[in-house]
């Protein structure tokens, strides 16, 4: 879900001009702009930025096994 810069302003408690400045300085980028050049932000990314929702981390697991075998030789 995408939200407007005004909605982000209310959530973050900062002014719209601050959000524009952050976008211009690559501190908090908007996800896209409409045909009318209005900024739109991903709601979940904003919540993560504000620390309201923690980012889900992918856990990678590697398993290593070693099989040792022996042979019985009858003489």
Concise synopsis of the structure shown:
Helices cover 33% and strands 12% of the residues.
What is the number of domains? 1
Task: List the helices and strands in order.
Answer: EHHEEH
Radius of gyration: 25 Å
- In CATH, the architecture is Orthogonal Bundle
| Beta-strand percentage range | 5-15%
**What's the total count of β strands?**
3
Question: What is the CATH first-level class name?
Answer: Mainly Alpha
pLDDT averaged residue by residue: 87
Structural class: alpha+beta
Largest sheet: 3 strands, antiparallel
Low-confidence spans: pLDDT under 50, at least 5 residues?
none
Strand adjacency order, main sheet = 1-3-2
Q: Level of helix content? A: 25-40%
Question: In angstroms, what separates the terminal alpha carbons?
Answer: 76 Å
Number of H- or I-type helical stretches = 3
Spell out the key features of this protein.
about 80 residues, alpha+beta, Multidrug-efflux Transporter Regulator, Chain: A, Domain 2, three-stranded antiparallel beta sheet, 3 helices, about 10% strand
Describe this structure as you would to a colleague.
The protein has 75 residues and is of the alpha+beta class. The chain has one domain (1-75): Orthogonal Bundle (Multidrug-efflux Transporter Regulator, Chain: A, Domain 2). It contains 3 helices and 3 strands, in the order βααββα. It has helices at 5-12, 16-24, 43-50; strands spanning 2-4, 32-33, 39-42. Strands 1-3-2 form a 3-stranded antiparallel β-sheet. The protein is rod-shaped.
């Amino acid at each position: 879900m995408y939200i407007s810069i005004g909605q982000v302003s209310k959530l973050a408690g900062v002014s719209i001009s601050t959000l524009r400045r952050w976008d211009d300085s690559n501190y908090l980028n908007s996800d896209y702009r409409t045909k009318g050049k209005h900024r739109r932000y991903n709601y979940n990314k904003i919540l993560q930025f504000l620390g309201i929702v923690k980012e889900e981390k992918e856990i990678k697991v590697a398993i290593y096994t070693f099989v040792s075998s022996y042979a019985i030789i009858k003489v």
